[in-house]
Design brief:
two-stranded antiparallel sheet; 16 strands; eight-stranded antiparallel sheet
Amino acid sequence: EERLLRIDKVLNDYVSKKWVPGAVALIVKDGKVVYHKAAGYDDVVNKTPLKKDAIFRIASQTKAITSTAIMILYEEGLLLLDDPVSKYIPEFEHPKVLSAFNDADSSYTTVPAKREITLRDLLTHTSGIDYAVIGSKSMNAIYAKASISSGIGGGKRILGNEVRKLAALPLAHQPGEKFTYGLNTDVLGYVVEVVGGLSLDAFFKKRIFQPLGMNDTYFYLPKDKHSRLANLYSEDAQHNIVLSKPLADIFPDYPNSAGTYYSGGAGLSSTAYDYAVFLQMLLNGGTYNGSRILGEASVRMMTMNQIGDIPFGDDRFGLGFRLYTAQSAARSPLSEGSFEWGGYFGTSYWADPKERLVALLFTQFNPNSHGELDDKFKTLVYQAINN
């Protein structure tokens, strides 16, 4: 316990130096919460403390939940991972790949794709679909011209309409040849709607959130929880903490709006505790508190290398997660086989099956010139373990 107090010291130090506005940290070891604290402020001007049950915009942490929804449908025999996406969304038939791009007017030429995109390509970000706003220069321009959303703060858009619009645009590369982080999981979200027969919002609630007791996880918050949404902060040119302003089509308070766009790649907001429950379910082999969400084989598949030798640094990628290899574990306290990801606004998590450990560090701060806090938090968690 005295070693866990080192986490308090570092988090409070970052707050006092005005390197982060506030943070919530949560650690679960052997299925028990051993650390769950908030540091710093929700409102840095009025010194309103950040609470540990604050609701955070978790952005890309939505991806793991959408991937889980796909695996639920896979287990029910309603789809196979190597099915072509066009089987469920016909607009994806006969995909084309970008061959030349004209910076002057965003015009382009294409060549036919060598094969169709599969669901596995989407789960592993190897389809060739790029990201709007944060993707490559050429694809950013192509997506902007077609008014493709990043998935965050999509407002009154409708997922199916957006995905069908995306299907008409070129891929950045041939399917299965490279890892390109992109709108793949938004497409998977629409596959869940088509196959599962419910909106993504309703499917998540019925098949994942309610069985797990994730009562604070939503695309759009109910009015009685609006006050729990953490303030979103940014940095100015001098690295001072300032309230975040609207960026492109992203308005900071989008979770408190009455939106209709259910982005499977970036749309959810949640608490550290709720997301820890979701991760503990995976660590338990698909079950939590008497509710089985997935079979053990599906969790095994999700957390095994699915991209072969496609370059991805020292790490590999499963069905929705970055995976630690022997090489990356040698450079980090995380064990080989650990899986992780994070969210655009400064949320991160990992699960370590070897140590039976789940850990999360949530902020609402982007950009953040002191992002090394994530790596320090990892060290602080592991130095406290006494098996």
